[in-house]
User: What shape does this take?
Amino acid sequence: MIRRRNPETQLQIAVAKHIRARGVRGLVWFHPANGGYRTKAEASIFKAMGVRAGVSDLVLFHAGRFFCLELKAKGGRASEDQMAFISEADAAGAYTALAEGLDAALATLEAWGLLRPSVTMKNILNRLESAS
Assistant: This one.
């Protein structure tokens, strides 16, 4: 039996593919694998080791800066733990965002300077520069 991936898993994979293909030089990033089923014993051990609920889907570092991006599929909502983490990371000086859907996630990563523009985006930028 093949399980269908949930929409957030598909979004996470798509964003990761873009980062691998278009990430700027020197970008360090990861997805904290906090989700998934755990037995009570495993959950207790992980909690004791410092795993915490609500950590953003992507944690990124570049040029001495720290970024946290929470990804949501269309219509998805952040949990209280996720909003608390975003708030704490923001207070600590991180660039933070909650992006709904692939376009918003990629636009955020591009605005932060973490993705090289796509060919399509380069064409749009060139047209805008030519028009001015």
Remarks:
- The chain is about 45% helix and 15% strand.
